[in-house]
Amino acid sequence: MLDEQKRKEIVAEYFRKVNEGDIDAILTHFTEDARIEDPVGREPRVGRAAQREYFHSNVAAEVTVNPGHASVGQDGKQVAVPVAATMTNILDPNRTRTNINAVDVFTINADGLIEDMRVFWGMSDIGV
């Protein structure tokens, strides 16, 4: 079980790597069989190939994230972070930027790797 500060550091480092856009570096934060559900309610992406595809689409959309204060669960595994994300609409010829407010919830294993990431957002959380 990892202490609270270590879990917060792992998630902060993950967000730094997302903003840098280095897919291989991002993937080092996940287990091989990690599950990503973004948004919650859609079919989860499971495994390295699905993770790579997910982050490739984020990099293509020039996603940037501004994480808020991370809160941890007392279970030694969970971290929840409010996130303001901005991305390019790659289908729009004007390449407009879209904002999404979300809450990312991570499960981190004893080795410090993310084994589950759930991203909560709805249509009312999207703005231009």
UniProtKB/TrEMBL annotation:
Keywords: Isomerase. Gene3D superfamilies: 3.10.450.50. GO terms for molecular function: isomerase activity. The keyword Isomerase applies. Residues 11-115 form the SnoaL-like domain. InterPro entries: NTF2-like_dom_sf, SnoaL-like. This is Ketosteroid isomerase. It comes from Streptomyces bambusae.
